[in-house]
Specification:
Layout (H helix, E strand, L loop, with lengths): L2 H16 L10 H11 L2 H7 L3 H14 L6 H12 L11 E2 L6 E2 L1 E5 L15 E5 L5 E4 L9 E4 L6 E4 L5 E3 L6 E3 L5 H32 L8
Antiparallel strand pairs: 1-2, 3-4, 4-5, 6-7, 8-9
Helix pairs in contact: 1-2, 1-5, 2-3, 2-4
Length: 224
Protein backbone atom coordinates (compact mmCIF):
# COMPACT_ATOMS: atom_id res chain seq x y z
CA UNK A 1 0.00 0.00 0.00
CA UNK A 2 1.36 3.43 -0.95
CA UNK A 3 1.69 6.20 1.63
CA UNK A 4 -1.22 8.02 -0.04
CA UNK A 5 -3.48 4.96 0.16
CA UNK A 6 -2.40 4.24 3.74
CA UNK A 7 -3.21 7.83 4.75
CA UNK A 8 -6.68 7.73 3.20
CA UNK A 9 -7.32 4.32 4.75
CA UNK A 10 -6.40 5.68 8.19
CA UNK A 11 -8.58 8.77 7.73
CA UNK A 12 -11.53 6.64 6.63
CA UNK A 13 -11.11 4.37 9.65
CA UNK A 14 -11.07 7.43 11.88
CA UNK A 15 -14.25 8.81 10.26
CA UNK A 16 -15.99 5.47 10.74
CA UNK A 17 -14.87 4.95 14.31
CA UNK A 18 -14.96 8.43 15.77
CA UNK A 19 -16.99 10.83 13.62
CA UNK A 20 -20.15 8.93 12.62
CA UNK A 21 -18.82 8.28 9.13
CA UNK A 22 -18.07 11.92 8.39
CA UNK A 23 -14.69 13.39 7.37
CA UNK A 24 -13.03 15.78 9.81
CA UNK A 25 -13.81 19.39 8.72
CA UNK A 26 -10.19 20.40 9.41
CA UNK A 27 -8.92 18.09 6.64
CA UNK A 28 -8.22 19.47 3.20
CA UNK A 29 -11.02 19.53 0.63
CA UNK A 30 -9.34 16.75 -1.31
CA UNK A 31 -9.05 14.53 1.76
CA UNK A 32 -12.69 15.09 2.69
CA UNK A 33 -13.83 14.29 -0.83
CA UNK A 34 -11.79 11.09 -1.11
CA UNK A 35 -13.00 9.79 2.25
CA UNK A 36 -16.56 10.59 1.18
CA UNK A 37 -16.03 8.61 -2.02
CA UNK A 38 -14.67 5.63 -0.10
CA UNK A 39 -17.60 5.74 2.34
CA UNK A 40 -20.14 6.38 -0.41
CA UNK A 41 -21.35 9.52 1.36
CA UNK A 42 -23.29 11.55 -1.19
CA UNK A 43 -24.38 13.91 1.60
CA UNK A 44 -20.75 14.91 2.20
CA UNK A 45 -20.14 15.40 -1.51
CA UNK A 46 -23.26 17.57 -1.72
CA UNK A 47 -22.11 19.67 1.23
CA UNK A 48 -18.76 20.21 -0.49
CA UNK A 49 -20.48 21.27 -3.73
CA UNK A 50 -19.19 18.32 -5.77
CA UNK A 51 -20.93 15.68 -7.83
CA UNK A 52 -19.55 12.15 -7.54
CA UNK A 53 -18.09 12.43 -11.04
CA UNK A 54 -16.35 15.69 -10.21
CA UNK A 55 -14.87 14.17 -7.05
CA UNK A 56 -13.68 11.14 -9.03
CA UNK A 57 -12.00 13.43 -11.56
CA UNK A 58 -10.21 15.24 -8.75
CA UNK A 59 -9.12 11.91 -7.25
CA UNK A 60 -7.79 10.81 -10.65
CA UNK A 61 -5.54 13.86 -10.64
CA UNK A 62 -4.27 13.01 -7.15
CA UNK A 63 -3.56 9.41 -8.18
CA UNK A 64 -1.59 10.59 -11.19
CA UNK A 65 0.42 12.94 -8.98
CA UNK A 66 1.34 10.07 -6.64
CA UNK A 67 2.26 7.80 -9.55
CA UNK A 68 -0.66 5.41 -9.12
CA UNK A 69 -1.70 3.76 -12.39
CA UNK A 70 -5.06 2.41 -11.19
CA UNK A 71 -8.22 4.26 -12.20
CA UNK A 72 -10.16 6.01 -9.44
CA UNK A 73 -12.94 3.41 -9.13
CA UNK A 74 -10.46 0.51 -8.88
CA UNK A 75 -8.41 2.41 -6.30
CA UNK A 76 -11.49 3.09 -4.16
CA UNK A 77 -12.41 -0.59 -4.33
CA UNK A 78 -8.94 -1.44 -3.00
CA UNK A 79 -9.30 0.94 -0.07
CA UNK A 80 -12.70 -0.52 0.78
CA UNK A 81 -11.22 -4.02 0.70
CA UNK A 82 -8.56 -2.97 3.22
CA UNK A 83 -11.28 -1.63 5.50
CA UNK A 84 -13.39 -4.79 5.52
CA UNK A 85 -13.72 -6.63 8.86
CA UNK A 86 -11.29 -9.50 8.98
CA UNK A 87 -8.68 -7.75 6.84
CA UNK A 88 -5.30 -7.77 8.57
CA UNK A 89 -3.98 -4.22 8.68
CA UNK A 90 -0.42 -3.08 8.93
CA UNK A 91 0.58 -2.36 12.52
CA UNK A 92 1.23 1.30 13.26
CA UNK A 93 3.88 2.23 15.83
CA UNK A 94 2.58 3.33 19.21
CA UNK A 95 4.41 6.33 20.65
CA UNK A 96 3.87 8.83 23.45
CA UNK A 97 2.91 12.30 22.21
CA UNK A 98 5.27 14.92 23.71
CA UNK A 99 2.46 17.51 23.72
CA UNK A 100 -0.50 15.74 25.35
CA UNK A 101 1.38 12.83 26.95
CA UNK A 102 -1.03 10.17 25.68
CA UNK A 103 0.16 6.95 24.02
CA UNK A 104 -1.62 5.89 20.82
CA UNK A 105 -1.05 4.75 17.25
CA UNK A 106 -0.61 7.69 14.85
CA UNK A 107 -3.50 9.45 13.16
CA UNK A 108 -1.24 9.71 10.12
CA UNK A 109 2.41 9.05 9.25
CA UNK A 110 4.98 10.46 6.85
CA UNK A 111 7.73 7.89 6.24
CA UNK A 112 9.66 5.87 3.67
CA UNK A 113 9.85 2.10 3.36
CA UNK A 114 13.09 0.16 3.34
CA UNK A 115 14.41 -0.81 -0.10
CA UNK A 116 13.02 -4.32 0.23
CA UNK A 117 9.63 -2.95 1.31
CA UNK A 118 9.75 -4.91 4.56
CA UNK A 119 9.03 -2.00 6.88
CA UNK A 120 9.71 1.59 7.89
CA UNK A 121 13.12 2.99 6.97
CA UNK A 122 14.19 4.38 10.33
CA UNK A 123 17.33 5.85 8.80
CA UNK A 124 15.07 8.49 7.22
CA UNK A 125 12.92 11.05 9.05
CA UNK A 126 9.61 9.66 10.32
CA UNK A 127 6.86 12.10 11.29
CA UNK A 128 3.57 11.15 12.93
CA UNK A 129 0.44 13.04 13.94
CA UNK A 130 -1.01 12.41 17.38
CA UNK A 131 -4.46 10.82 17.25
CA UNK A 132 -5.56 12.53 20.45
CA UNK A 133 -4.04 16.00 20.15
CA UNK A 134 -3.52 16.20 16.35
CA UNK A 135 0.00 17.58 16.86
CA UNK A 136 2.83 16.44 14.60
CA UNK A 137 6.22 15.26 15.83
CA UNK A 138 9.19 13.21 14.67
CA UNK A 139 9.93 9.76 16.06
CA UNK A 140 12.77 7.25 15.91
CA UNK A 141 12.75 3.48 16.32
CA UNK A 142 13.65 4.01 19.98
CA UNK A 143 10.40 5.92 20.58
CA UNK A 144 8.21 2.97 19.54
CA UNK A 145 6.58 1.26 22.51
CA UNK A 146 6.25 -2.56 22.45
CA UNK A 147 2.78 -4.18 22.43
CA UNK A 148 3.08 -5.82 25.84
CA UNK A 149 -0.66 -6.05 26.57
CA UNK A 150 -3.84 -7.15 24.79
CA UNK A 151 -7.54 -6.33 24.78
CA UNK A 152 -10.58 -7.75 23.02
CA UNK A 153 -12.36 -5.62 20.45
CA UNK A 154 -16.02 -5.21 21.43
CA UNK A 155 -17.07 -4.96 17.79
CA UNK A 156 -15.37 -7.90 16.06
CA UNK A 157 -14.08 -9.90 19.03
CA UNK A 158 -10.52 -9.77 17.73
CA UNK A 159 -7.38 -9.43 19.80
CA UNK A 160 -5.85 -5.94 19.82
CA UNK A 161 -2.25 -5.82 21.09
CA UNK A 162 -1.08 -2.52 22.56
CA UNK A 163 1.43 -1.01 24.99
CA UNK A 164 0.36 -0.89 28.64
CA UNK A 165 -1.27 2.46 29.35
CA UNK A 166 -2.26 3.26 25.75
CA UNK A 167 -5.06 5.84 25.52
CA UNK A 168 -6.30 4.61 22.14
CA UNK A 169 -5.91 1.09 20.75
CA UNK A 170 -6.31 0.11 17.10
CA UNK A 171 -8.06 -3.20 16.43
CA UNK A 172 -6.07 -4.88 13.63
CA UNK A 173 -9.12 -6.91 12.63
CA UNK A 174 -11.82 -4.29 11.99
CA UNK A 175 -9.95 -0.98 12.29
CA UNK A 176 -11.93 0.34 15.25
CA UNK A 177 -10.09 2.70 17.61
CA UNK A 178 -10.76 1.50 21.14
CA UNK A 179 -10.47 3.28 24.46
CA UNK A 180 -7.41 2.00 26.30
CA UNK A 181 -8.37 -0.36 29.14
CA UNK A 182 -5.68 0.86 31.55
CA UNK A 183 -6.81 4.49 31.82
CA UNK A 184 -8.00 5.76 35.18
CA UNK A 185 -11.20 7.78 35.44
CA UNK A 186 -9.22 11.00 35.60
CA UNK A 187 -7.19 10.02 32.55
CA UNK A 188 -10.35 9.23 30.64
CA UNK A 189 -11.72 12.66 31.52
CA UNK A 190 -8.46 14.28 30.43
CA UNK A 191 -8.53 12.35 27.14
CA UNK A 192 -12.13 13.37 26.49
CA UNK A 193 -11.30 17.03 27.13
CA UNK A 194 -8.13 16.88 25.00
CA UNK A 195 -9.89 15.31 22.03
CA UNK A 196 -12.87 17.63 22.37
CA UNK A 197 -10.83 20.83 22.64
CA UNK A 198 -8.52 19.98 19.74
CA UNK A 199 -11.56 19.15 17.60
CA UNK A 200 -13.14 22.51 18.42
CA UNK A 201 -9.87 24.34 17.75
CA UNK A 202 -9.53 22.64 14.35
CA UNK A 203 -13.08 23.61 13.42
CA UNK A 204 -12.44 27.20 14.51
CA UNK A 205 -9.38 27.38 12.24
CA UNK A 206 -11.37 26.06 9.30
CA UNK A 207 -14.19 28.55 9.92
CA UNK A 208 -11.70 31.42 10.22
CA UNK A 209 -10.20 30.45 6.86
CA UNK A 210 -13.68 30.33 5.30
CA UNK A 211 -14.49 33.75 6.75
CA UNK A 212 -11.29 35.24 5.33
CA UNK A 213 -12.00 33.72 1.94
CA UNK A 214 -15.57 35.03 2.00
CA UNK A 215 -14.31 38.51 2.92
CA UNK A 216 -11.84 38.49 0.02
CA UNK A 217 -14.62 37.59 -2.38
CA UNK A 218 -17.07 40.08 -0.93
CA UNK A 219 -19.19 37.49 0.87
CA UNK A 220 -20.28 37.27 4.46
CA UNK A 221 -18.74 34.75 6.87
CA UNK A 222 -19.99 33.60 10.21
CA UNK A 223 -17.24 35.22 12.27
CA UNK A 224 -17.39 38.66 13.85
Amino acid sequence: MTDFAADITARTRWAQARNNGHPEPAWSTGERLIVALVLGSQATLDSEGYTRQQALQRLSGDLAFYGCTADAETWITGIRAALRPGTIMTADPYTRCPDCGFTAPPESMDYLLTLDGAGIDWARPVRVTCMCYHAGYHITAGDVLPPDAEMTCHRCGGCAPHPVGAARVLCPGCGLFLLGPDLTLSQRDELRITEGMTGLAARALVQAAKDRRAARHGGTGTGQ
